[in-house]
Design a protein that fits this description.
Shape: globular
Structural class: alpha/beta
Radius of gyration: 20 Å
Number of domains: 1
Strand content: 15-25%
Number of helices: 10
Order of helices and strands: EHEHHEHEEEEEHEHHHHHEEEEEEE
CATH architecture: 4-Layer Sandwich
CATH class: Alpha Beta
Number of strands: 16
Distance between the termini: 34 Å
CATH topology: Purple Acid Phosphatase, chain A, domain 2
Strand order of the largest sheet: 4-3-2-1-14-15-16
């Protein structure tokens, strides 16, 4: 039977917004359009065809969810479960659309946790999502990728969220949790996630758009003229946080101070090179002709000279792009599809969702 794979990333569902009461930490406003997308492919495929929905990281923005009025820095299984519950309760249409999708035969979901929903590697959130989707008796219909950041397809395709390509968001998959002195198991967050919790989130409450602007450095440079006090405070907080968590809290802090320039280059300056890092990762892996990523929020569709294809599914957040190459670009409701010809060879496309009147169009080249 024919197989279709749908790949989406970086939806960033938060706790939702009340009627007429905006939530500055909520960045997903497309529940209905997401539901339309799944319904469209359900109808187009029919009951005999297989559909695999691959949710490639940062589907939930659990870093923005507060518990008792604060962003918790130590994530236990119970805290992770409560954060996910708030997201699911805040987006009932999204949950309903997934439930309806899974009612069809030959339908399954693969969930790859990203750096904003790393909590999904823990058992509590996994069980809660299965319960909300009515999968308590069919756990095989929802699979979580937790042993690495990569979902390997047998036909030479890798699907990665992409956070492992940036040092500040990189995690050790052999040690995803650690045990506190009180015996509680706690998620081992990368320092980039801690920076989001302690620096970026408070800044977003003041300027809700700050994490929706690309590239951030260009915005901060310009905003020094127009919003000087805020930018200086943001840069100061970021600098102090970097020194505190990357230099002086390391056990071998003398060696870290000596290697300060290298750390600065790897952790900070390299932030603008995600596309290049993804291209290097694709070229270095043997037997892989296609790499699908997300994370950077920039949709890309690039074929290289060696016939290797790099696809970035972008985001469903409304982005503001200050890069002169993409000035003002709204990244749109982009996603990827993988279908198969009669010989079983995969065909990968980047698409933009327009709704049921004009479901989608091919994006032949997006760089």
């Amino acid at each position: 039977m024919p197989l279709l794979r749908l790949i989406l990333s970086d939806l960033h569902l938060g706790a939702g917004s009340g009627h007429g009461v905006p939530n500055v930490l909520e960045d997903f406003a497309h529940d209905e359009r997401f539901s339309e997308l799944l319904a469209h492919y359900q109808e187009a495929s029919g009951d005999d065809d297989e559909i695999e929905l691959i949710l490639n990281g940062d589907i939930f923005d659990l870093l923005k969810i507060k518990i008792d009025g604060v962003w918790p820095l130590e994530i236990t299984n119970e805290i992770a479960t409560e954060k996910l519950r708030q997201c699911l309760e805040g987006h009932p249409v999204f949950v309903h659309s997934l439930r309806e999708f899974l009612k069809g035969p030959n339908r399954r979901i693969v969930f790859i946790p990203g750096n904003h929903d790393l909590d999904m590697v823990m058992s509590g959130p996994q069980q809660l999502l299965r319960r909300y989707l009515g999968l308590s008796d069919a756990p095989e219909r929802l699979r979580f990728i937790t042993r690495s950041d990569t979902y390997y397809l047998p036909e030479g395709i890798q699907i990665r969220h992409g956070h492992q390509l940036e040092r500040i968001h990189r995690v050790d998959y052999e040690n995803l949790t650690h045990t506190r002195k009180d015996g509680a198991e706690v998620l081992s967050l990368p320092w980039g996630s801690l920076w989001i919790l302690e620096v970026m989130n408070p800044a977003k409450e003041e300027r809700s758009y700050i994490d929706r602007i690309l590239p951030l450095g260009r915005f901060l440079s310009a905003a020094l003229l127009f919003d000087t006090r805020f930018v200086v405070r943001f840069l100061w907080n970021s600098t102090v946080y970097f020194l505190k968590h990357r230099i002086f809290r390391i056990r071998a802090w003398r060696d870290r101070i000596r290697g300060f320039r290298r750390i600065l280059r790897e952790d900070i300056i390299a932030l603008g090179g995600f596309d290049e890092a993804a291209a290097r990762a694709l070229k270095q892996v043997r037997g892989v002709h296609t790499l699908v990523v997300g994370h950077s929020h920039g949709p890309r569709f690039r074929m290289y000279a060696d016939n290797k294809l790099l696809v970035n599914t972008g985001t469903w957040m409304k982005m503001i792009n200050l890069d002169l190459r993409y000035l003002g670009q709204d990244s749109g409701l982009t996603y990827a599809t993988i279908s198969y010809d009669e010989q079983g060879s995969p065909i990968t496309h980047l698409r933009r969702w327009y709704g049921t009147q004009q479901p989608s169009e091919l994006v032949p080249h997006a760089d």
